[in-house]
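Sample intake sheet
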Amino acid sequence: MTDLGLAPEVEQLRDIVRSFSRDRLSPSAENAESAGSIPAHIMRSLNELGILSPLDVNADQALDPVALVVVAEELGAGDPGVAYETMAGAHAALAVSQLGSLGQLNSIIDRMASDAVPLGSLWFYEGFGRGPDEYRTAVVQTGDQLTLEGQKIAAIRPGTADFAVLVGRASDRTIAVLLDREEMGRCTITRDDRETGKLGLNAAHTGDIQLAKVRVPVSSMLEAGDELAVDRLVASARLSTAAIAVGAGMAALRYAAEYATTRQAFGQPISSYQGVSFPLAEADMDLKGARAAILDLAMRLGDASDPGALARETGQVVAAATKAALSTTATGVNTLGGHGFLTDYPVERWYRAAGMLAAIDNDPLLFG
């Protein structure tokens, strides 16, 4: 296993995001959940932190996979919905800045007002988290045109994003295609969760997208530096989803542990009873193991040489993390007893979020 010691700059970033998540994001989580959107002041702060839309032509300054999962976990502890929308958008921006040409990057930035931040959407989930050869979204080249056909789920900012990065299959490889507002308008939003509602992650604006023979120029393709660049991008995005789940689990664990030390039963704190303390200790070990596995794979993404093997290992790591998060948040609810199901207490929100994250990236062959 890779040495999991974090670089000093990543440690510093973690501390900054942790403080922001604790002091600003977490207190806003209930309102964000009720409103179904990220508060404007949180958006501004995320932009100031450099993680809202990292469109950076200097790849050396861009967030790497390790930094991304560290940020995702800390944001997930504050509000998993805000974290999901933020990290998916960040990966869309990184896809353009790292895989695209300078012209493609400028095509996004130049169309925006000087005081606006281009917000992207990464379209890659299809209702499962299996290998790249099982993508149903097809990208077919005919002359100077690409024809896109397929469906994506849990896409952020449906109908409101400034650009989208679509992941699909062209022949025997995974590719990414940059879509502008006009091209996104040719796609159909088959589900907008702000209108239909959903179980959790309510602060994130999500929805499903249908592409029915949408045609775009070949120049829309993001010319990755190597054949596995897009596969690594997808793996990084999936690991961020897993890290958000771990963050939600950690938040639930901390809340439940503190509650257990103050709640009295038969004259003593309920934490003194093994039926309460043992499940919390087991949950702590499971989450720490999941975090270590996420960081380990994030550190090794650059060494991946087989897209199928990378997708399988990513699926295993994500399945273990979301399973641990579901179990931990359920333990948190149970620790609070009947109070755990009340919206007055945040553990039920973390439980619902963990369920949504597990459903978004779900491989039934691994999630047993």
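Comment: The chain has eleven helices and nine strands. The first strand starts at residue 120 and ends at 123.
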